[in-house]
Amino acid sequence: MIIANKAYEVGDVIEIEVRIDRQGVYNLTSISDFTENETIDSYFTKTVEVSTDSGISYTAPVEVDNASISLNDVTVTALNNIIYLFKYTVTGIQPTEPLIFNSLQIDGTITVVRNKQIVVYSIKVTGEILLY
Predict the structure, then answer these.
(1) C-alpha dihedral (20, 24, 25, 29), degrees to nearest 10
(2) What pLDDT is recorded for position 4?
């Protein structure tokens, strides 16, 4: 059962969407999050899927941590948004307290061509929890 940003049972999934509206080549350098009540026995498994066609289709899920960011160099076409869909799944044994997701931030750069010149921007975005 999910209530707002709290997951109560093994298998519960909290989905966080990060949407960026800019054409270019993305290079993500870090992912940081803030959660509460994770233990060795009860924790979130974190995966991400990427869409370059405004959410019509997504890549296969990839497990995510800062040691293995495999989201680099995603090319986005001019008419589409890029969407990172993070899924936090309660794993392990039944938690005695709800696992709480507070925030997610991704940092990196976006490289674009503007007036025949390559421009690199820093990006820092936060995710929003999807409530169904």
Answers:
(1) -40
(2) 80
Contacts of 96 (CB under 8 A, 6+ apart): 42
Q: Is 41 helix (H, G, I), strand (E, B) or coil?
A: coil
State the pTM of this model. Answer: 0.81
Per-state percent for the chain, helix, strand, coil, to nearest 5:
0, 60, 40
CA distances to 16, 31, 35, 113 from 4, rounded to whole Å, are 12, 22, 13, 40
Instruction: Report the C-alpha gap between 37 and 130 in whole angstroms.
Output: 21
Query: Residue 49 is part of which domain span?
Result: 2-129
CATH number where 52 lies: 2.60.120
CB of 42 within 8 A of CB of 94?
yes
